[in-house]
Design goal:
Shape: globular
Strand content: 35-45%
Oligomer: single chain
Structural class: alpha+beta
Strand order of the largest sheet: 2-1-5-6-9
Distance between the termini: 33 Å
Helix content: 10-25%
Length: about 150
Amino acid sequence: MSQHDFDVDEFLAQPLTARIATAGPTVRPVWFLWEGGAFWILTGPWARLSGLVARDPAVAVVVDVCEPATGLVRQVVARGRAELVPFDVARGRRKLARYLGEDEARWDARFVHYLYDDPGERGTVWLRLAPSSLRAMDLSYSVGGGR
């Protein structure tokens, strides 16, 4: 990967919502885990995402922030060919804990089920995108009329 205006790993470690685009075109918001240079997105038969990717693995992912009060505007745009890989609980827990907190007792029951139900029965899989291209831009600006 090339040099960027900000620390991409630090930015993608935040519990932000990404948008993933597939052929169709279809765009949907998703929670993700950025780990090992790849986006990990939990999916399964309850969503159309796994079927769309099975038919055409070309995807794009956008993660961004825009805070008009502070002028912080950053974005990461990734593209590549996604793959569907078996679900593993340890990675699933890391992903869910970043959005829901470490205390599983406080999680909504549906997230606990995603994590611990038998993935063979439930159909839970990972969509993994190791981007072939990744572009990060810092478009931040000064607030308050400074020139």
